[in-house]
Amino acid sequence: MNLLSIQGEGALYTLLILFVCILAVHGYKLAKIGWRTFHKKLPPQKPRKKTNTPEPIYYLVERKKTRSKKEYSEPKRIKFH
């Protein structure tokens, strides 16, 4: 007994071919990257210098701002026409 119709089988095979092509392309790209890094020689590493002097710490301090005017003027009247 056939569970899928002809169109269903075609869609299934299309998706299968799509996934195989995607895997093949990514596999090729990864193999190419691996081949290049396999033959690449890395530069020799320089030994790290040990420094026991602590680095300076800078604190950012903001000054308190005072109000420019401590007294308020009389409120202005608003006229509606």
Architecture overview:
The chain has 81 residues and is an all-alpha fold. It has one helix spanning 6-39. The N and C termini lie far apart (88 Å).
Can you describe this structure in just a few lines?
The protein is mostly helical and 81 residues long. Helices cover 42% and strands 0% of the residues. The chain is built from one helix and no strands.
Q: Strand pairing plus helix content: what structural class?
A: mainly alpha
| CA-atom Rg in angstroms | 37 Å
**What percent strand?**
under 5%
Q: Give the N-terminus to C-terminus distance in angstroms.
A: 88 Å
Mean pLDDT value: 83
- Note the main sheet: none
Number of strands: 0
Number of helices: 1
Order of helices and strands: H
Shape, principal axes of CA atoms: flat
Assembly classification: single chain
Roughly what percent helix? Answer: 40-55%
Taking pLDDT < 50 over at least 5 consecutive residues as the criterion, the unreliable ranges are: none
Secondary structure: elements and pairs:
Blueprint: H1 6-39
Supply database-style keywords.
mainly alpha; single chain; 81 residues; 1 helix; flat
